What does this fold into?
Amino acid sequence: MGAIPATTEPAAVMPGNTDMIVRTARLAFQIEAAERREYAAKRERLRALVEFHYTMADLLARTDSWSPEGQAKVHTERAKHMDAAQRYRAELKQLEGGGA
It folds into this structure.
């Protein structure tokens, strides 16, 4: 019998709650801004990693060793850089919403 009807004002707009509403809204905006900065930093890092590994692979492709063993190491390192670049590129594409 003493139940509050569903048509009354919600508790969130009752006196005394406005400070909490303003605070939660401000915190929500801060969280969103931090997430945008985090996303941008991760994207920038991945782009730099992709460029670094492709550049290293290109440099190693232009490297000639004076011994067959050395040349084999050069090819192995180049392959490692190509693999890393492709992994980071796939991660970047996924981050940017392009799927895997």
Observations:
- The chain has a mean pLDDT of 88.
- DSSP finds two helices and no strands in the chain.
